[in-house]
Design a protein that fits this description.
single chain; 5 helices; 2 domains; mainly alpha
Length: 92
């Protein structure tokens, strides 16, 4: 059997390797199939995290608490844009 190549970073590359492995070896154990599926899934999770497609409820709360865009801050203050300038003058 061919060893798995963990230097491959994209799910497409890993999927091609797994397809070749399965084509070359028709008799595969359940345990090896599980290893192959983990090999594919963990790569996809890493890539999704890098692209920030995975936003859990907890992650969204953190993002909203740390809002730094001007428009986002203005929308959270009751005075709007004047509230931003009031904060700036208070901190000086």
């Amino acid at each position: 059997m061919i060893k798995l190549d963990y230097t491959l970073n994209t799910p497409e590359e890993r999927n091609d390797l797994v397809s070749r492995l399965l084509a070359e070896t028709p008799e595969v154990s359940d345990k090896y199939l599980e290893v192959l599926s983990d090999y594919l899934i963990f790569c996809m999770e890493k890539q999704e995290k890098k692209e920030k497609k995975i936003l859990t409820e907890n992650r969204l709360m953190t993002v909203n608490k740390r809002e730094t865009s001007f428009e986002g801050l203005v929308s959270q203050l009751e005075n709007g844009e004047d509230g931003i300038y009031n904060i700036i003058t208070e901190n000086k």
